[in-house]
Specification:
Elements: E1 2-11, E2 14-24, E3 29-33, H1 40-48, E4 55-60, E5 63-64, H2 69-75, E6 76-79, H3 91-101, H4 106-119, H5 135-149, E7 153-157, H6 165-180, E8 184-188, H7 192-198, E9 201-206, E10 209-214, H8 216-224, H9 232-239
Parallel strand pairs: 3-8, 3-9, 6-7, 7-8
Antiparallel strand pairs: 1-2, 1-4, 4-5, 9-10
Helix pairs in contact: 3-4, 3-5, 4-5, 8-9
The structure holds adenosine-5'-triphosphate and magnesium ion.
Length: 241
């Protein structure tokens, strides 16, 4: 569902992403880990089509994100690290807007939008302007918009920042549910505990280069040889030292 071939992104002389190659299959929950400034957000912005690569090729759902941007965008949903929502729409209007853009039939929108707002406990604010929503409420609204669309690929950039514990638990269950339905999840995160428990595969990027990839057990083996009993945190710190 996601194919990244030899992706490089330069900012002037600086290589933010350096010859990155990755493949993510349907139903996979891929955790993209790495220190601050490693190149995670840059990679996700390129996957989403909002930033152009310097070189290399990226396919989402089989569509080239540079040459077939509209087709790729129909397949994917992107939740950025800073939740952007239109301040002068209400929560309900925002979900209707997303529903219309992605051609979700009106009947389905009318049924599912209230259900989704209930699920994330933002129903009481459905008629309020989004400029009055807290960071966590905006994040929950964006996650609800992903559920409304049922995309085949979801890109999350640090999705749990700002969410309360109950919402984080709900979010984790949602990831498992959508992956069971075959959605490919690409998630940048610093929460190693969540990555260890939820992700079917991991990649660690450091200074733009992919330094490890595989299942949690495979990544642990890379750092500690035959001994797999170390925590992902210890392994991450060793590999990125
Ligand atoms: N628009 C830009 N112009 C110039 N440099 C940029 C730009 N965007 C990112 N960079 C640089 O590229 C590098 C990678 O940044 P990126 O945001 O991808 O890191 P990250 O892995 O997401 O970090 P964090 O964990 O802090 O979110 C950093 O050195 C950053 O300063
Ligand atoms: Mg980032």
């Amino acid at each position: 569902m996601i194919e990244i071939h030899n992706l490089t992104k330069n900012f002037g002389a600086y290589k933010a992403v350096d010859a990155l190659s990755l493949n993510i299959s349907p139903g996979e929950i891929f955790g993209f880990l790495g220190p601050n400034g490693a190149g995670k957000t840059t990679t996700v912005k390129i996957l989403s089509g909002i930033m152009k690569p310097t070189s290399g090729r990226v396919l989402v759902g089989g569509f080239d994100v540079v040459k077939q941007p509209l087709e790729a965008k129909k397949v994917l949903a992107y939740i950025p690290d800073e939740p952007f929502v239109y301040p002068k729409l209400t929560g309900f209007e925002f979900l209707r807007f997303i529903g219309d853009i992605y051609s979700i039939p009106y009947k389905e929108q009318r049924e599912r939008i209230p259900e989704l707002m209930d699920l994330f406990e933002i129903s009481a604010q459905s008629g309020e302007l989004l400029e009055s929503y807290s960071h966590g409420m905006k994040q929950k609204l964006l996650i609800a918009s992903v559920l409304l669309r049922k995309p085949r690929v979801v890109l999350f950039d640090e999705p749990t920042v700002g969410l309360d514990p109950k919402s984080i638990r709900r979010f984790k269950q949602l990831l498992l549910d959508i992956s069971k339905d075959g959605t490919a999840v690409f998630m940048c995160t610093h929460i190693l505990d969540m990555a260890e428990k939820l992700c079917t595969s991991l990649g660690i990027i450091s200074a733009g280069r992919l330094i490890a990839k595989g299942t949690v057990a495979e990544v642990k083996k890379l750092a500690s040889g035959a001994h797999c009993d170390r925590s992902l945190e210890e392994v991450f710190l060793e590999l990125t030292a």
